[in-house]
TrEMBL record:
PROSITE patterns assigned: ALDEHYDE_DEHYDR_GLU (PS00687)
UniProt xrefs under InterPro entries: Ald_DH/histidinol_DH (IPR016161), Ald_DH_C (IPR016163), Ald_DH_CS_GLU (IPR029510), Ald_DH_N (IPR016162), Aldehyde_DH_dom (IPR015590)
Official protein name in the record: Aldehyde dehydrogenase
Pfam entry (one): Aldedh
Residues at the catalytic site: E258
Keyword terms, alphabetized: Oxidoreductase
Domain of life: Bacteria
Organism from which the protein derives: Mycolicibacterium helvum
Lineage: Bacteria, Bacillati, Actinomycetota, Actinomycetes, Mycobacteriales
GO molecular function: oxidoreductase activity, acting on the aldehyde or oxo group of donors, NAD or NADP as acceptor
Family indicated by similarity: Belongs to the aldehyde dehydrogenase family.
Length: 491
């Protein structure tokens, strides 16, 4: 396990045009550790002027700098050097992520920071090796060019900070764009360190700019409404997604929006419970339920409901909730007090809606937890799919369990949601599994597994879960401006 930081309070500035600069009005906000609310950093509180300055720097680096003119192979070399820096500083980045957002150290160290390096390497290689189409037809030869789109605004959330930021930055850069990243105000630390590592790896100034602060009219305003921005890639809540789409519409700026979810996890009577129970536990409680893909609506066949629920609740009660810096911890604190209060209000609402709290349901306030934002694994039964608790995204360690009798009923409940991000099902009947996958209204369907990600696959959601897909060729289509070229060959 990495050393815990001695934690001198950091002073975090924007990265604009290769320089670390304070906010234009010199104001800051605080970033705090959700484990004990201790102060971690003073962070530049970005103004609209800062957002605009970052776009100017990204624009200049795109219009006049070397980056878009380099070959994909040359860009890949820089991105690989950056991935090497990430690998070299893995312990440090993991501890920063864990302190800033309450993510367990196991997850930061073994999943998310390695995925940061993987994002960089994958898209570097993909861009360098992607095939291009050519259509010779008689005396006509047509082919497709994929020039970079230009300046990309990347706006990311707090729940997997650097992993999701690099899910945007890596393809944007690999295909030759320049970027302005705005990380979530709750978790600025790893983005800042990543900016330092990017300069050390040789990324030219202005190619990656990072501005900190809040949404709305401040720093994020220009990122979504400035006509000099060519693409907006956003991951966050469905409500913010609507605002960003509205702002982007003014200049017809294309938006990729990866939004919220309320995904169904369906366990059939023939499921192997030795797989389905631990996977279902992970699907909702890993990451504290603060995962867009969480299987937060658990649908269990009524024939196995009692057996399944008994095992599920027993395992949920065994999960260690505590200091995320400890290797044994499975559930860390929620991101902030306001969010904990929101999660708890949903649990109260569930009771008002006729639900039964089988386990959990109240903030942890004993000595080990009282200084942080700790909420235990919570399981609710007795609701229908019409309950708000079963329909709205809670984004916490709260599972609503519903029963079903037939495949058709399970599918109907799964699809009866404003969201369409993911779905998972457990069965030993592969015919059924494929039938379900074909009719499921969700961007990703997992069968007898959960959270496996192949970066070549399209990633995104339907309905309130988003717009567009990223990953492999889908990222190339979004971050470039595909151009058809046709020439006539004269004899
Ligand atoms: P959020 O929408 O509050 O904020 C996300 C980012 O948008 C932050 O950087 C925030 O400062 C910025 N922002 C807020 N208002 C803005 C505005 N008007 N204009 C521009 N930027 C603005 O979301 P959050 O609470 O940080 O993240 C949790 C949400 O993200 C959940 O709904 C979760 O499901 C979703 N999420 C989705 C995916 C996915 O891939 N589909 C992945 C992770 C998280």
């Amino acid at each position: 396990m990495p050393q815990q930081l001695a934690a001198p309070v950091a002073d975090i500035k924007h990265l604009i045009g290769g320089r670390f600069t304070p906010a234009s009005d010199c104001t800051t906000f605080e970033s705090r550790d959700p484990h004990d609310n201790s102060l971690l950093a003073h962070v530049a509180r970005g103004t609209a002027e800062d957002g605009s300055a970052a776009i100017t720097a990204a624009r200049a680096a795109f219009d006049d700098g070397p980056w878009p003119k380099m070959t994909a192979k040359q860009r890949a070399a820089v991105l690989h050097a950056l991935a090497d820096e990430v690998d070299e500083h893995r312990d440090e980045l993991a501890m920063l992520e864990t302190r800033d957002g309450g993510k367990t150290i196991n997850q930061s160290l073994h999943a998310e920071i390695p995925r940061v390096a993987h994002n960089l390497r994958f898209f570097a290689d993909y861009a360098a090796m992607a095939a291009n189409e050519a259509y010779p037809d008689g005396d006509l030869l047509s082919y497709v060019l994929y020039p970079p789109a230009g300046v990309v605004s990347a706006i990311s959330p707090w729940n997997a900070p650097l992993m999701l930021a690099t899910w945007k930055i890596a393809p944007a850069l690999a295909f030759g764009n320049t970027v302005v990243l705005k990380p979530a105000p709750q978790t600025p630390l790893t983005a800042h360190r990543f900016g330092e590592l990017a300069l050390a790896a040789g990324l030219p100034p202005g190619v990656l700019n990072i501005v900190h602060g809040f949404g709305g009219e401040a720093v994020a305003g220009p990122l979504t409404s400035d006509p000099r921005v060519d693409r907006i890639t956003f991951t966050g809540s469905s409500a913010t997604g609507v605002k960003i789409l509205q702002a982007a519409a003014a200049h017809h700026t294309p938006v990729s929006a990866e939004l919220g979810g309320k995904s169904a996890n369906i366990v059939f009577a023939d499921a192997d419970l030795d797989v389905a129970v631990p996977m279902s536990i992970r699907a909702i409680f890993a990451g504290n339920g603060q995962v867009c893909l969480s299987g937060s609506r658990l649908l269990v066949h009524n024939d196995i409901m009692d057996t399944f629920l008994d095992r599920f609740v027993t395992e949920a009660d065994r999960l260690i909730v505590g200091d995320p810096k400890e290797a044994s911890t499975f559930i860390g604190p929620l991101i902030e007090e306001r969010h904990l209060e929101k999660v708890h209000r949903y649990v109260e609402l569930a009771e008002e809606e006729g639900g039964k709290i089988v386990t959990g349901g109240a903030r942890l306030v004993d000595d080990a937890h009282r200084n942080g934002f700790y909420y235990p694994p919570t399981v609710i039964t007795g609701l229908t799919n019409n309950a708000r608790t079963a329909r709205e995204e809670i984004f916490g360690p709260v599972e609503t369990v519903l029963g079903f009798d037939t495949e058709e009923e399970a599918l109907r409940i799964a699809n009866d949601s404003p969201y369409g991000l993911a779905g998972m099902l457990f069965t030993q009947n592969l015919d059924r599994a494929h039938r379900m996958a074909a009719r499921w209204r969700a961007g990703t369907v997992w069968i007898n597994t959960f959270f496996e990600r192949d970066l070549r696959l399209p990633f995104g959601g339907e309905g309130a879960s988003g717009l567009g897909r990223e990953g492999g060729q889908y990222s190339r289509e979004f971050f470039t401006e595909p151009r058809a070229v046709t020439l006539r060959l004269h004899p």
